[in-house]
Specification:
The chain has 7 helices and 8 strands. The protein is globular and about 55 Å long. With 250 residues, the protein is of the alpha+beta class. Residues 33-47 have a biased composition (Low complexity). Pfam families: FMN_bind.
């Protein structure tokens, strides 16, 4: 009986050694899937980079009005260097409780649009419909701005420069219609192809229109001050100028 113990011990030791080798070999393949999963984690990150913002054309562009349960919402963007520098609502629900909701929500949505540089903005609490309409019109404005980008990056000067005439704006003393020349995304010239005339209107027009033309080039937008003594002409000028800018798409 005593002689048999060394044999059993040898058998057990051999079995233990073999088991250990098998375990070590089995651990190697198990580490490979982990490495594969780690490598597999890279594609989603690459996709998020590829999904970044597309270039948008410089200038001022107004999105389509979005109809909501409480009224229309329409957003205008100012883009410079391919980035949104200003967002504003040219239409928003008004009247009754809507006035309070709009005055609270719109400034927050404007700020959020500039920060996000996209239409991916959070809805303002208590202004669900206004927020949804804002985002819809904002996306429309961005789409228009993107559509204008290829024209601004054309090969030659002829492709980059364009002349656009806005819709005629009717005023109490006659129509006002503005034509602008845009080159490389900037207004280089503004002129009134129609303006009130006859009687005292001739003097008012000759005084106001040159000032408005100069102001349009300086402001690079329709946000120009009215000329003193020419309130109606100034209002019509701004309306037609904005129409021309919208047509130019920045």
């Amino acid at each position: 009986m005593r002689k048999s113990h060394p044999v059993r011990r040898a058998v057990l030791a051999t079995a233990a050694t073999v088991s250990g080798i098998v375990l070590l070999l089995s651990l190697k393949p198990a580490s490979d899937p982990g490495a594969a999963e780690a490598a597999g984690g890279a594609p989603p990150a690459a996709e998020s980079v590829q999904g970044g913002a597309r270039p948008i054309g410089d200038g001022t562009v107004t999105g389509d009005a979005a109809q909501t349960q409480y009224g229309a919402v329409q957003v205008r963007l100012t883009v410079s260097g391919g980035k949104i520098t200003k967002a504003e609502a040219v239409q928003a629900p008004k009247g009754g409780q809507s006035d309070q909701i709009t005055s609270n929500a719109i400034p927050k949505l404007n700020q959020a649009a500039v920060q996000a540089q996209s239409a991916d903005v959070d809805a303002v609490s208590g202004a669900t419909y206004t927020s949804a309409g804002y985002k819809e019109s904002l996306q429309s404005a961005l789409d228009k701005a993107r559509a204008s980008a290829p024209a601004d990056t054309g090969g030659g000067d002829a492709a980059q420069a364009q002349t656009v005439t806005g819709e005629a704006a009717q005023t109490q003393y006659g129509p006002v219609q503005v034509r602008i020349t845009v080159s490389n995304g900037k207004i280089t010239k503004a002129e009134a192809v129609q303006a009130p005339k006859g009687g005292q209107s001739d003097q008012i027009t000759s005084n106001a229109v040159p000032k408005l033309n100069q102001a349009a080039v300086q402001a690079q937008s329709a946000d120009v001050d009215a000329v003193s003594g020419a309130t109606y002409t100034s209002a019509g000028y701004k309306e037609s100028l904005q129409s021309a800018l919208d047509k130019a798409g920045g």
